[in-house]
Each structure stands twice: as C-alpha cells, then as structure tokens.
C-alpha cells in the first residue's frame, strides 16, 4: 500500500476513494479499497491506496484522535508512504474539533513539520481563496452550511476556524503562489519552515483542479497531507511517475436484486433530490417525533421497502432548517441523531437479511450508521455515479452494492440513477 487515507466519515471516504482510483485524466489512478473502520487483518497485497472510513467527525475530540491514530498505525503497517487525513470540503467541525485535534495528533505521530490544509473541491463549487472557504459564489457561512444539524459552519475564515481547534500555529499560502506552480509552492513551504520551526498547519488556497494538481505534486514526499477529496487528485501521479504504481484499477461485477434508498441528510441538495424522486417513485417520510416515541420502528420501514420492490423505494427523515431546529430544541441534537442512526442502522440490517442487495444512502452520518450496522469489512471502488460518489461493492461472501452520497452531492435525479448504476453500471 502506498497511500493511506483516514476519512472522518463514510461518504467522505468514498469521495476520496474514487478520486484516488481515477487519478489524473489520461494517466489513471491507484487500485483502491475502502475499509469500514480499522481492519483487524492485513490488507490484500494488490491494494495501492487504502481508505479507512471512520465515523469521527462529530464524536468527542479525544475519541476521534484515538481512532485516527489507530487507523494511521494500521496504514503504516501496510507500508503506506503517505497519510492523508480527509475531512469535509465544507470543513465540517466545531470549535472543539475534530479537524484541528486530529491533524495535530497525526502530525506529531508522523513527525510532520508542515501540514497542508486544503478542503477545496472545485468540481462541487468549494474553493479556498485568501484563506476563506466558498461554496459556489457564497462564503461557507452563508451557503446553507450555517444550518447543518451537527456541525453548523458560521465562519468562512479557515485560519480563524482552524486556529480555534489547533495547538499548532496556522499559516496561509495564497493563490498567487500556487498559480506559479509546483516549485514556487515548494519554495513557499521552505520559507514557511524557516520562519517557524514549530509544526505548522498551512492553509493553501485552491480555486481550480489545476491548483489542486500543483498542490498534490508539491506534496510529493510529505508524510501527512490533509483536505477534501480534491487534495488527492494528483497524489497517485507522484507514485505512478516514479514507477511505484501502474495506473490501473480493479474491475468489479454488477449486482442485481432488491433495492432500497435510505436518506437522513437534511441538506438543500438532498431535499431537492427527494422531491424529484417522489415524482416517479414511492417515497416514505419519517416523523422524527414518532421515532423518538417508538411509534415508528424499523419493521415499518422494511415493510414499505418490501411492498415497493423494483420501484426504487426511498425512505427519508430529512427536514428543512426550521423543522430540524424545532425538533433539536425539543429533544436535544444528540438524542435526535442517535435515534435516527439507530433506526436507519437496524432497518438496513433487516433489509439485507431480507435479501436487499443494492443500497443507496443519503448523508454522511447516516451512511456511517447504516454501513456500521452491516458489519462489512471492505468495499471495492467501482464507477463514479456522480461527482464524488462511486458505486461500491462489498468484499467477501454475498456481496452487496452500495452508494453512499454526501448530503450536498449529486444531481437532481441522483437516487434513481444510483439504483440503476448499481445494477448494471459497475464496470
Ligand atoms: N428531521 C430531522 N430533524 C433533525 N435531525 C435530523 C432529521 N433528519 C436527519 N437528521 C440528522 O441530521 C444529520 C444529517 O447528517 P448527515 O447524515 O451527515 O447528512 P449530511 O451528509 O447532509 O451532512 C444526521 O445526524 C441525522 O440523524
Ligand atoms: O468533502 C466532501 O464534501 C464530502 O466528501 C464529505 O465529506 C461529505 O460529508 P457529508 O456532507 O456529511 O456527507
């Protein structure tokens, strides 16, 4: 294994896994496997990039650090020469963490004196300029992310956001340097090292894939790199150019069989996709209060999916910002999230036991809850369904096909397309 990724949620893990698997256009990427939690056995010999999916974005910082270090140790034991910490392209975190504490701990563990921090993902409209994070033409804090149920992002200034979370100094390298190319950026790294001998977190601007390619190439040899999936765009190139990887990917077979779509994301994009899906497919809405009171239980969800087989049935809990706020005020944020995680997790388990073979999940935390309940160990990365969302197939007996969609990702017809792609589109 050459590159090891520690991803703080499951959809983010598949996002960076498809990036590593594709590599630069015309060159190819790495043979990539996504692991669900830290594996307890060595990786198969042919894996070139291993992505460990944790559910560590919204847990207490000390637990996130412990899990991330355990993942890092396993990846190092597989031979990884470079570790990537993948967080959300909207920098989802709170003042308590977990991006700062995990980055600090990994940097100390790996002896990394400088750590690039770059959440940019231009294909999804996330760019970093002058140290500020934008979502399309809006500052992060005015993009809708200020209403996120778990990690509301109310400040777009990444230097400020990260400095509140990190023990290490935070510095910035502007786009004016990045645009001059790899050597100019490496010179800027060296200059920053001279200025400060402490471990330094370097927020690097990027507004295009070209910028991310420059940054990735400048990170050749860095023990630790952090960012959204865009940071991984050119990392395979560094190994392919040195002849350490061949630029080929694994191929995986299509999976047919009963299907289900489970959605917990409350993002605007996901709510639009649900509305679109509802026009032609059966859709069931879950009232959160009914889940908390025990009126809605997994059996109801399973019965709905079974009654609508072959029609791409979808079940969602997603609410608009006002509904989410009201229910959280009434019951508490953690209690609501835990009840929904448990509902979706148990439902998924029952669905697979009942023969469902294709599962599409909307939402990062929700995907984590679902996949954790399925006791899967590893997923092979297939074709990209939509930007940042691959079709995946579980390794081992009785494979199931999965698509784990970040709340903000995907076109309007994503859910129907994902179900169809899992059936025939995994090439
Ligand atoms: N109607 C609702 N009210 C309050 N919280 C909700 C509701 N529906 C889902 N949630 C919670 O919102 C969170 C959505 O997060 P996540 O699944 O990561 O989506 P995203 O990918 O958009 O961030 C989950 O913790 C989920 O349990
Ligand atoms: O970087 C991204 O935007 C995604 O890969 C990601 O991490 C998404 O997280 P969720 O929105 O919580 O699914």
From TrEMBL:
InterPro entries cross-referenced by the UniProt entry = 4-carb_acid_sugar_kinase_N, 4-carb_acid_sugar_kinase_N_sf, NBD_C, NBD_C_sf, OtnK
What single Pfam family name could you report for this chain, choosing any that match?
NBD_C
Q: Which UniProt keywords apply?
A: ATP-binding, Carbohydrate metabolism, Kinase, Nucleotide-binding, Transferase
Task: Name the catalysed reactions.
Answer: 3-dehydro-D-erythronate + ATP = 3-dehydro-4-O-phospho-D-erythronate + ADP + H(+); 3-dehydro-L-erythronate + ATP = 3-dehydro-4-O-phospho-L-erythronate + ADP + H(+)
- What's the top EC group for this one? transferase
Tell me where in this chain the Four-carbon acid sugar kinase nucleotide binding domain is found: 260-415
User: Is ATP-binding given among the entry's keywords?
Assistant: yes
Q: What is its EC number?
A: 2.7.1.217
| Origin superkingdom | Bacteria
Enumerate the spans annotated as Four-carbon acid sugar kinase N-terminal domain. 3-235
What is a single molecular function from GO for this protein? ATP binding
Q: Give the protein family.
A: Belongs to the four-carbon acid sugar kinase family.
What does the UniProt record say this protein does?
A: Catalyzes the ATP-dependent phosphorylation of 3-oxo-tetronate to 3-oxo-tetronate 4-phosphate.
Return the protein name. 3-oxo-tetronate kinase
Task: Give the organism the record lists.
Answer: Winslowiella iniecta
């Amino acid at each position: 294994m050459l590159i090891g990724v520690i991803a703080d949620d499951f959809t983010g893990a598949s996002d960076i896994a498809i990036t590593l698997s594709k590599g630069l256009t015309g060159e190819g990427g790495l043979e990539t496997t996504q692991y669900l939690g830290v594996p307890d056995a060595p990786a198969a010999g042919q894996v070139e990039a291993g992505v460990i999916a944790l559910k560590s974005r919204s847990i207490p910082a000390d637990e996130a650090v412990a899990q991330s270090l355990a993942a890092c140790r396993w990846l190092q034991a597989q031979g990884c020469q470079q570790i990537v910490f993948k967080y959300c392209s909207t920098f989802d975190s709170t003042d308590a963490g977990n991006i700062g504490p995990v980055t600090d701990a990994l940097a100390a563990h790996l002896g990394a004196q400088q750590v690039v921090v770059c959440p940019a993902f231009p294909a999804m409209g996330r760019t970093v300029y002058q140290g500020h994070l934008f979502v399309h033409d809006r500052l992060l804090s005015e993009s809708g992310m200020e209403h996120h149920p778990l990690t509301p992002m109310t400040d777009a200034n990444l230097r400020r956001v990260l400095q509140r979370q990190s023990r290490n100094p935070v510095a910035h390298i502007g786009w004016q340097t990045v645009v001059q190319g790899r050597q100019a950026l490496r010179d800027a790294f060296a200059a920053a090292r001279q200025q400060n001998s402490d471990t330094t977190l370097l927020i690097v601007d990027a507004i295009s894939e070209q910028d991310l390619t420059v940054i990735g190439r400048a990170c050749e040899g860095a023990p630790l790199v952090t960012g959204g999936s865009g940071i991984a765009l050119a990392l395979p190139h560094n190994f392919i150019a040195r002849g350490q990887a061949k630029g080929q990917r694994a191929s995986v077979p299509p999976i047919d069989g009963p299907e289900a779509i489970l959605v917990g994301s409350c993002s605007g994009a996901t709510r639009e996709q649900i509305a679109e899906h509802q026009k032609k497919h059966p859709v069931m809405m879950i009232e959160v209060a009914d889940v908390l009171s025990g009126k809605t239980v997994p059996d109801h969800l399973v019965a709905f999916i079974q009654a609508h087989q072959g029609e791409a049935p979808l079940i969602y809990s997603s609410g608009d910002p006002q509904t989410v706020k009201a229910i959280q005020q009434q019951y508490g944020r953690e209690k609501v999230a835990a009840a929904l995680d448990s509902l979706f997790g148990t439902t998924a388990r029952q669905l697979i036991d009942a023969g469902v073979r294709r599962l599409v999940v909307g939402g990062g935390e929700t995907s984590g809850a679902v996949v954790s309940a399925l006791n899967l160990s590893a997923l092979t990365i297939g074709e990209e369904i939509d930007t940042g969302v691959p079709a995946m197939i579980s390794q081992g007996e009785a494979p199931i096909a999965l698509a784990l969609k970040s709340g903000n990702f995907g076109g309007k017809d994503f859910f129907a397309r994902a179900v169809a792609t899992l059936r025939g589109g995994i090439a």
